[in-house]
Amino acid sequence: MSLHPTVERVTARIIERSRHTRGDYLRRMDEARAQSPARTPARLALSCGNLAHGFAASGEDKPALRGGHAGNIGIVTAYNDMLSAHQPLEQYPNLIRAAARAAGGSAQVAGGVPAMCDGVTQGRAGMELSLFSRDTIALATAVALSHDMFDAALLMGVCDKIVPGLLIGALSFGHLPVVFVPAGPMTTGLSNRDKAAVRQRYAEGRATREELLEAEARSYHGAGTCTFYGTANSNQMLMEVMGLHMPGTAFVNPGTPLRDALTVAATEQALRITALGDDYRPLAHTVDEKAIVNAMVGLAATGGSTNHAIHLVAIARAAGIAIDWDDLDALSRVTPLLARIYPNGSADVNHFHAAGGLGFAIGELIGAGLLHPDIACVHGGDLRQQAMEPWLDDLALRWRAPPATSLDPSVLRGVAMPFDAEGGLRRLAGNLGRAVVKVSAVAPAHRSITAPARVFDSQDAVLDAFRAGTLEGDFVCVVRGQGPRANGMPELHKLTPTLGVLQDRGQRIALLTDGRMSGASGKVLAAIHVTPEAIDGGALARLRDGDRVRIDADAGTFDAQVDAAEWRAREPARTIDRSSRTGMGRELFGLMRANAGTAEQGACSLFVTLHEDAQVEVA
Fold first, then answer.
1. Distances (CA, A) of 566 to 260, 435, 537
2. What is the rounded CA–CA span in Å between residue 302 and residue 412?
3. What's this model's pTM, rounded to 2 decimal places?
4. What's residue 40's pLDDT?
5. According to the annotation, is 159 in a ligand binding site?
6. Is residue 529 within a helix (H) or strand (E), and if so which, with residue range?
7. Do 303 and 441 contact (CB within 8 A), yes or no?
8. Which stretches of the chain drop beneath a pLDDT of 70?
9. What whole-number distance in Å separates Cα of residue 171 and Cα of residue 173?
10. Secondary structure (DSSP) of 426-465
11. Which residues does residue 185 pair with via DSSP β-bridges, in sequence order?
12. Is 226 part of any known ligand binding site?
């Protein structure tokens, strides 16, 4: 099957747009390759003292590291035992070290990165550190790998900002082969739909706190990733379609023999694809323009998290690739929606995986010409082999073809009979700026609205109005001052149950914000990531209560229906809440807020250029 013309056209324009930045990136990676790893006899860049420090505590791996002839893997881990998704990673380093020794190499934990949970910080002050934790993780990854002792890296992380941060950091070491090693989802507990129903009843005062806590505890009940299709599980999908996992790794449950076998296989493969062997596969050449296009198509086809409208831009930028929301919109409009996973349906990722999962979906998208199959996947083949399904033949890990047809069409479908002819994401543009909207969970009848604005400067102010009974009639709920430069762009997911209650009462409503919503955004139309943000004089700062606002997700437009002369004459409202600049560590992140790019630039604080006159410019 030839490539779909839109995929071909978008890929070509990304390549052309990125020609200079991508060329510069690849040149830098080639230079790094010529100088690394510094411990090998061919380089001897590390002094004897440097090298002795590097293997002093390595025990039985010391001879291999001292000789410098065998491959050495750097492990970067997001392990902590508070978060269910990362708790299983505790024992991975021991397993990886043993597997590396058996394969004739070695492995060392190069460093750890923080892993915060948006589920714990949702609606709290700590959520204002969430987005910038991605940048912190990227920095920590770079620090871990900067010892220059490694021939390859295994990156261990799963959730929200962790995987994008690990990847952004590792791309500065793109001369190294890199394999992602996840932990997998927890087993299914209380259904996500039943959990959401209790949340909504609680928002209305019809369920007690104890009932709510019981529902949440039965849903989030053990080790592994949350089972809804939020940012964490969207991360795992992206790693598959970009070829950064061993095939079929994403949704295998933790604590199983198959999961351990996949971790061993990732270790063995990392050693095979170093520059010491004959199948060198550096990260810089795995994450290319085609892999980034695959990521955007996979996101659209599965109804993935809106957070990746930000993260993918930042990841691409770290690889010297320039993408924007027009690219995402164009691809989404030609990509069929193949999955119904909560919040876009009632099933969870375990159900999706059992129905045929990513292997089936990847095969269908390749067959339709919507994915680039010819990317340099870390497993040694191309994307066609990425679709293979892992299984254990006694104790031997093997791969087989995924199901030829979906095993549950209520959860997963092929391109011939999709849930929707178009994917889950849209770009909006108009006199309010540019924004992103996720439509995969929004009924067609709710995808457009014209209604008066109700303007708030925090999500707590919205909830206060709801409790006071003043959110009546149809309206567009505007929550401004929530962008990356204002307060770190927190998710506003705390509003989801409340807005759902209002919509269920028959009111026509929508959310409009320069903040984020989350991977769990659902049935209420939400125009998010509005740029320019209000603090930078964006149009949301000009909106007033009662202004008529039109949002049309299908047409890709959003506008304030205000007389043009009046609109131009309005002074932007002051939207800075200085109380959000301190407390819960927020005072330490002022540098990141000040240097953050726009949401469409990835809301990233890392890409700055220091000119000769010492002026710092966001790239």
1. 64, 23, 16
2. 9
3. 0.94
4. 64
5. yes
6. strand 526-531
7. yes
8. 1, 38-45, 518-521, 609-619
9. 5
10. EEEEETTEEEEEE-TTS-GGGSEEEEEEEEESSHHHHHHH
11. 225
12. yes
